[in-house]
Amino acid sequence: MLSHQLLSQWRKGPTNSVPLEPGHGRGIFCMDIMKDHLVTGSADHGLRCYNLSSMKYEKELYAKRYGHSEWVSSVQHLQNGQIVSAGMDSKICLWDAKGVRCNDLVGHQGSITKLMVDEQSVCISSSYDQTLVIWQLSSMQESRKLFGPHKSAVLDFDWKNSLCVSGDKQGTVVFWDINEGEPVMSKHAHQGAVSKCLLYSDGGNNNLVITAGINDGTLVIHDMRTNKLVNQSQIHKGSINGLAVNLQNFIITGSADATCKITDIVAGFKPVSMMKAKDAVFSIETIYNMTIAGCGDGNILFYDNDSGQCLYGFGAMNKGCVRQMKINDNKTKLVAIGDDFSPMVLQYS
């Protein structure tokens, strides 16, 4: 829960903004934050580590013998301080907690689109090779490969406990039991590529699998327990690029049609609000009753969810779009990355 003072500051605007230097040699495509530690991955093949407490650069994860040979597509922190990254070179790099050295995990035959890691250092990765792979990072071994239903590149997935949901370039959504390594359900849910997958539970009656489409602008919702379709609606006229849940009741989507929309879960997936931007929305974040939209013109827009009003905007990128945003653990900083070479940090304390 945000303090009244901090909530007021988020609604009013940042107290300071800082581009973290040195930046990358090219645009930034992924990042992760754990406590005060930020890591970013770039099209220049490298990763950079920063301390958000001191706002200082720490090190670059790239060397002649170690690292990626293509764009870095995904990165995550492990609980033990290590970092794991994936790239378009089809490999995963497990970096030492100290120094600049990594072990390569090779199992995919195509560009890796995403990876996720749990507290036991189990990792799942998805790829253009139409598969997902489960890795035991503690032993640096591939433990299982998930394959079959996907006949095209797997673009996104989400994972909680034994359930994983993945979506591919042809619109197929697959539910997986990762303990068994088998698909539970496979369905052609979208007319074109799946942009986002999200597993949502309010701890009560609502346990949902939410997927969003690139070509159809459609939000598709399945009941996690019965695997049955409970809602399917075209809510955007463009690609859905951002998907989040706010205050346990609302689904928030951001789209290339230059809007963000709010769907009420409790009210039977009723659309309740629309927020307009001046350019395509490439990424979203949410905090309390606010939606934050990262746009194609480099601006970040902050909206009140109740009124749909834009509270303020901030020019975060000198060129290109805001590709991803994350809020740190204590809710005092928003980090934005995109086509600029440096991460931008907005401070709220």
Automatic annotation (TrEMBL):
<keyword id="KW-0853">WD repeat</keyword>
<feature type="repeat" description="WD">
    <location>
        <begin position="147"/>
        <end position="186"/>
    </location>
</feature>
<protein>
    <submittedName>
        <fullName>Uncharacterized protein</fullName>
    </submittedName>
</protein>
<feature type="repeat" description="WD">
    <location>
        <begin position="105"/>
        <end position="145"/>
    </location>
</feature>
<dbReference type="InterPro" id="IPR050995">
    <property type="entry name" value="WD-F-box_domain-protein"/>
</dbReference>
<dbReference type="GO" id="GO:0042393">
    <property type="term" value="F:histone binding"/>
</dbReference>
<dbReference type="InterPro" id="IPR015943">
    <property type="entry name" value="WD40/YVTN_repeat-like_dom_sf"/>
</dbReference>
<dbReference type="InterPro" id="IPR001680">
    <property type="entry name" value="WD40_rpt"/>
</dbReference>
<dbReference type="InterPro" id="IPR036322">
    <property type="entry name" value="WD40_repeat_dom_sf"/>
</dbReference>
<dbReference type="GO" id="GO:0048188">
    <property type="term" value="C:Set1C/COMPASS complex"/>
</dbReference>
<dbReference type="Pfam" id="PF00400">
    <property type="entry name" value="WD40"/>
</dbReference>
